[in-house]
Amino acid sequence: KVSLAYSIMPFIDRIANEVKRLLKSKDSKEVRDERFSYVAELTDRINDYNDVLTRWIQMRQGDINLRVESFPLQELFDMVKRGRMGFQLKGIDLQVEDTNDVVKADKTLTLFMINTMADNARKFTPEGGRVTITSKATDEYVEVGIADTGVGLTEEQKEMVFSHQPSAGHGFGLMNCKGIIEKYRKTSKRFQVCSIGVESEQGKGSRFFFRLPLGRT
Fold it and tell me: DSSP of 84-125, one letter per residue?
């Protein structure tokens, strides 16, 4: 229950840092307005995470079930696009490719997984790099991928990145993404296609991905 709460901490830290910069800043009005927008964006993200945290704890306690529905991924991709500011301030190009794919899943938890992986990519990608979010459908599932041009992972880090032991600063968010996938797989045979993984090479970036059942419009 506690682990998902740790996913909120980076956003709180970033809000505090941005407020400090604003108080000390002699930047132009345009730059200050951008930073104010970023603080507002982070605050909204914390509210989203609080909702997810509440639902996740309730699910772990058996109080509520997954809210499974078919929905277009583009709805969530559009929401992620609105979070470009955090990437831009670090000098990272966020590319979210439009998609026609439809998934059958819990919309809130799907957004949580995309945001978690995207923020993880932002954290480990240096200035001038790129983070790309895509989806690809098969006859049975849709794979959502978050690729970056960051520092990459060693073989040892790849083995531990979704475990309960935070690996190289990747923290609890990815562990909870794995927990969500495991929750799906226990639901029904349809969700046996669900999986989560990472492809990475040290110094050449990473690609995190997860698979959800194909939905119907």
Answer: THHHHTTT-EEEE-----EEEEEHHHHHHHHHHHHHHHHHTS
| Cβ atoms of residues 180 and 164 within 8 Å | no
Token pair of 171 as six digits: 């923290």
Tell me which residue of 116, 89, 79, 69 sits closest to 213, measured CA to CA.
Answer: 69
Say how far residue 139 (Cα) sits from the centre of its chain: 25
Q: Cα(63)–Cα(107) distance, rounded to whole angstroms?
A: 18
Alpha carbon 191 to chain centroid, angstroms: 20
The tokens for 100 are 């026609």
Query: How confident is the model over 27-80, as pLDDT tens digits?
Result: 666 666 665 565 656 656 655 666 666 666 666 665 557 889 999 999 999 988
